[in-house]
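Figure 2 data, in text form.
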Amino acid sequence: MARNYSVAVVGIGAVGAEMLKVLNQRQFPAKSIRVLARSARAEEIAGRTYQVTETNVDAFNGVDIAIFAGTEGAKGASQLFGWQAVAKGALVIDNGDDFRMDPRVPLVVPECNAEALRQHKGFIANPNCSTIQMVVALAPLHRVARVRRIVVSSYQAVSGTGRQAIDELQKQTSALEKGQEPKAEVYPHRIAFNLFPHIGRPSDEMPGYYTEEVKMRRETRKILGDPDIQVSATCVRVPVFNAHSEAVNVQFEKKMTAAEAREILKSAPGVVVIDDPARAAYPMPLMASGTDPVYVGRIRDDASAPNCLDLWCVSDNIRKGAALNAVQIAEKMIQMGLI
């Protein structure tokens, strides 16, 4: 990483702020970092003050790498400015979902399918947070025994919705402690001391599913490079501030034991195995929040079907599920000599 790069982060919500933290924590080779958002202002992030510039086409002049956070109401910002930034000479890494399934755009988790970066046309997509942590856990197993079917239930923290949802959980909890009736404004129902199987909007493509569940199906197939993998997801919003959890049942083409899977995952990049149920040792959101890995545990043989395993994975959805993965894409591009 001899060269230094001019970097732009587009969006300064929860994900954009975390991207700035990650860039600094990992000492990304940036000669400059500019922050773009809907309006110009000063923002303090992790003790540093950034002068935010209003996003427009000219703001990408001289930018080598533009990372779109897809937050702070900037959903769709990459639709407006992404390809224009590419035309200006920037490599675009987009955390939004506007171009994830675009055949021109690689959808990349560096631990899983870094080679897809070689096909880039200046624009790379960051997958959905719930998809990222699942494929980090499953890709090493897929290479050995080939995944045929996945049934996953996700338990997703409110940080995935953004700062307003975090505030809503805090306010509702405080109201209940005071004996007051909490208000539901961000979500359709009260989230404090409650949960609901509703993330995204009803899907036109798959009636009965929400769009978050459809994303997990489509994105997993693209990342693992196998359109025949069957995926059924149920995504649940839970009253946890940060870090998503997933219960995954996976069926392979051939037999893989829990012990074999455990050994494979112990040496897999980006994975930390915590799997000692007798001692109540398993991944939890509290241990994952603010950290980089995907934590995997409760790895066990499924006696109800052939070639099946159950596992539990937890990861920080704002960090590995968004900001960190985007920065790792940029790092991998540099490492591979693609930028």
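Caption note: The first helix runs from residue 14 to 25.
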